[in-house]
Design a protein that fits this description.
Elements lengths: L1 E5 L4 H12 L3 E6 L7 H9 L4 E5 L14 E4 L6 H6 L1 H22 L2 E7 L26 H21 L3 E6 L2 E2 L10 H11 L3 E4 L5 E3 L1 E2 H13 L5 E4 L4 E3 H12 L5 E4 L14 H7 L7 H17 L6
Parallel strand pairs: 1-2, 1-4, 2-3, 4-5, 5-6, 6-11, 7-10, 8-13
Antiparallel strand pairs: 9-12
Helix pairs in contact: 1-2, 1-7, 4-5, 6-8, 6-10, 8-10
The structure holds uridine-5'-diphosphate.
The site of uridine-5'-diphosphate (UDP) has 14 residues, from helix 6 and strand 8.
Length: about 325
């Protein structure tokens, strides 16, 4: 299979590219490095033995890829709340124009298409846990609206290309995912708390920390992406780990697992921060036989090892 991965130098995109190369496929990575990092794919350029190539390009502009393409994984987007604040227009453009361009490529190449959508389409949910038939509770003009509405538009245009043009589309709603290669200054809870705990700095819990999230390790997520792309199901599928915890519990657990003596401090809760989030993964279980395998403590241990190496340059003890 020859796959295009937009956002292939990003956190999830680079892990997905790794897995595709490991399975013997060819990968064309399209990334403009707005939040992606060329360091993530340097090893792949070598390991791919000619099967991995890089097309430095902004997918929000028209894209041309030479040769056949069998599958397009459209992963490109800023994805951390601090990034939406810094890149609001780019976030809107990649979800709308970028998805349009990626779908146009899928139509031209008769390729299967997968949209990386998000649990953010549910907004601050009034239904808990979230099932795919819930339409959500989104503030279109709030700071997160640029991401939430772009992804909602992306889902709509993806279904339109399926209905109008018969493109074989797949839509994944990705819940909170973590793992090695997340940017240390990414701003999301897991990398923020890990970096703070390892450096002995205070862990910054926003609000009273009673809001909940459910964290999935990246290798589990990637397995689900590949299974979904192989399926013949065209409506959205939640992928995430249903193991729900409060953000205060997350901070405490990360402190324990890293042996950190850092204090926990509280900062103001960001605007429109969802109070709860937990996927109902019945659809993924039934359709794909998929469920997360990596326990939270193990995932944090693996992520902490990567963070230690990047922050302190330590060689991990195996
Ligand atoms: N959060 C926090 N401290 C931080 C970063 C995030 O308390 O330094 C909280 C944030 O307010 C939210 C949760 O952790 O309630 C998850 O935030 P994240 O940015 O990881 O992603 P989100 O799930 O909000 O998209």
């Amino acid at each position: 299979m020859r796959a295009v991965v937009t956002g292939g130098a990003g956190f999830i995109g680079s892990h997905l590219s790794d897995r595709l190369i490991g399975l013997g496929h060819e990968v064309v990575c399209v990334d403009n490095y707005i939040t992606g990092n060329p360091a993530h794919i340097e090893a792949l350029l070598e390991r791919g033995q000619g099967r991995f190539s890089l097309h430095k390009h902004n997918i929000s502009e028209h894209v041309t890829i030479e040769g056949p393409v069998d599958a397009i994984f459209h992963m490109a987007s800023p994805a951390s709340p601090v990034d939406y604040l810094q890149y609001p227009i780019q976030t809107l453009k990649v979800g709308s124009l970028g998805t349009h361009n990626a779908l146009g490529l899928a139509l031209a190449k008769k390729a299967r298409f997968l949209l990386a959508s998000t649990s953010e389409v549910y907004g601050d949910p009034k239904v808990h846990p979230q099932k795919e038939d819930y339409w959500g509770n989104v503030n279109p003009i709030g700071p997160r609206g640029v991401y939430d509405e772009a992804k909602r538009f992306a889902e709509a245009i993806t279904m339109a290309y399926h209905r109008a043009h018969g493109v074989s589309v797949h839509i994944v709603r990705i819940f909170n995912t973590y793992g090695p290669r997340m940017r240390i200054a990414d701003g999301r809870a897991v990398p923020a708390f890990l970096a703070q705990a390892l450096r002995g700095e205070p862990l910054t819990v926003f609000g009273d920390g009673s809001q909940t999230r459910s964290f999935c390790y990246v290798s589990d997520l990637v397995e689900g992406l590949i299974r979904l792309m192989e399926s013949d199901f065209h409506e959205p599928v939640n992928l995430g780990n249903p193991h729900e915890m409060t953000i205060l519990e997350l901070a405490q657990r990360i402190k324990e697992l890293t042996g950190s003596k850092s204090p926990i401090v509280h900062k103001p809760l960001p605007v429109d921060d969802p109070l709860v989030r937990k996927p109902d993964i019945t659809r993924a279980r039934t359709l794909l036989g998929w469920e997360p395998k990596v326990p939270f403590d193990e995932g944090i241990r693996l992520t902490a090892e990567d963070f230690r190496r990047r922050i302190f340059g330590e060689v991990p003890v195996r």
